[in-house]
Specification:
By secondary structure, the protein is of the alpha/beta class. It folds into two domains: about 1-80 and about 360-395, Urease, subunit C, domain 1 (Roll), CATH 2.30.40; about 80-360, Metal-dependent hydrolases (TIM Barrel), CATH 3.20.20.140. Helix content is about 30%, strand content about 25%. The relative contact order is 0.15.
Length: about 425
């Protein structure tokens, strides 16, 4: 009898070690919002390694899997913010922790991953509010450089990079929204012509290289070659109707894998955007109206209009200091006609698709197990993210907000 007990203990111990080594985990929750399919009440998620193995209701948890039960919680896929400067910027008054800007108009050879700082205080704050993957981008000049995609957990930059060079950022010089050309409008026109000329010369440089015709090496043009060799996405800001049409024309002319960013006046050119086939990354839902005639709800109406036309789009928050409230931007759009289901997709699945992250954005077999556990609807202001799982493992690092909350709750003087 004693021998049998010892054998059972050894087997249990070995199974526990195997589970720990393979990261065999089962998460059960009151509701699982899969995003890619129907919501699952009393759902179970089986995780093996860093990926989701199976999702459903009534699943039998296999031997060796550690079960974590959240009977009153909701599980969502981790949120994805496709336009930030996290890791490149910190406290605005301290220059040494802000590395988003370079001299010059055209810097396609500059890459965000070279300047990324993984230990900033804003990263755990944003993660604590449910955003687990971001695109971080430079922001100065007409072509600031290339953006990187990072997961918000890791000790070194190499731990965090998903794609070191994920997209080229282009800031289209903004023209006036007025029909009548204002003074200095020719300056905007020249800036656009200069941008087109730079892209044109880069394209010719690529074509010559493809044919083996040697010419003088140009680092800026060389850095543009991935736009055609690797179909590197180009995220181009365009807000007025004129600029949106120009961006679409430029994308078609040079066969760019274009993503429109901002599109403040997008409602007026929905037909052109839909026909282009280009996806959209919206800028902040906190943006102020540019003219009083626009109405107070202009930016809030746009997501519903895009969804109605079937145009793929994502929300984004580029201001790092407020990036933690990313879900609330989608919540505002729901108040103005966007369906809650589409709103959640525009925080998770759609940005994953726009950025080419095939293994992210949903709770489904084969996807990376990036999950957030909440105490309610993620679109509601009162909802809190209670637990975070990244690559199948629970992230225990606390943000400044969480530490201060716990210190106040326990009435502890000084830091915890």
């Amino acid at each position: 009898m004693k021998q049998r007990v010892v054998v059972l203990i050894v087997i249990f111990f070995m199974l526990s070690l195997a589970a720990a080594a393979e990261n065999l985990l089962a998460i059960k929750a009151k509701k699982v919002v899969t995003v890619s399919g129907d919501d699952i009440d009393n759902g179970i998620i089986l995780i093996k390694g860093d990926k989701i193995e199976k999702v459903g209701a009534g699943i039998t948890v296999p031997p060796g899997y550690r079960l974590v039960d959240y009977p009153d919680r909701v599980v969502y896929p981790g949120l994805i913010n496709p336009m930030t400067s996290l890791g490149l910027s910190g406290i605005s008054s301290i220059g040494m922790v802000n590395d988003t800007r370079e001299e010059g108009k055209y810097n396609p050879h500059m890459s965000a991953f070279r300047a990324f700082y993984p230990w900033g205080n804003l990263i755990p704050i944003v993660r604590q509010f449910g955003t687990l993957v971001v695109l971080t981008a430079p922001s100065s000049g007409t072509i600031p450089g290339k953006a990187a995609i990072v997961r918000l957990n890791g000790w070194t930059p190499e731990d965090m990079f998903i794609k070191k060079e994920a997209a080229l950022i282009v800031r289209l010089p903004e023209s006036s929204r007025k029909k009548k050309k204002p003074a200095g409008a020719s300056g905007f026109s020249k800036a656009k012509k200069d941008l087109r000329e730079f892209v044109n010369k880069s394209h010719k440089y690529y074509l010559r290289a493809a044919k083996g015709i040697s010419r003088d090496f140009n680092p800026a043009y060389e850095a543009m070659k991935p736009l055609w060799t690797d179909h590197l996405p180009v995220i181009m800001s365009a807000n007025s109707t004129r600029d949106i049409k120009y961006a679409i024309k430029l994308g078609k002319e040079f066969k760019l894998h274009l993503v429109l960013y901002g599109i403040y006046d997008g409602e007026q050119v929905l037909k052109e955007i839909k026909e282009s086939g280009y996806p959209v990354i919206l800028s902040s839902m906190y943006a102020e109206n540019r003219d009083w005639e626009d109405g107070c709800d202009k930016v809030f109406r746009l997501p519903a209009a895009l969804a109605k036309e079937g145009i793929p789009f994502s929300f984004s928050v580029n201001r790092d200091a407020t990036a933690f409230d990313y879900p609330l931007h989608a919540g505002r759009a729901v108040a103005y006609g966007l369906s809650p289901r589409e709103a959640v997709k525009a925080l998770t699945l759609y940005p994953a698709e726009i950025l080419g992250l095939k293994e992210y954005g949903a709770v489904a077999p084969g996807k990376i197990a990036n999950l957030i556990v909440t105490d309610g609807d993620i679109l509601e202001t009162s909802t809190l993210v209670k637990e975070v799982y990244m690559n199948g493992k629970k992230v225990t690092g606390k943000s400044f907000f969480r530490k201060e909350y716990e210190r106040a709750r326990e009435k502890v003087s000084g830091s915890l």
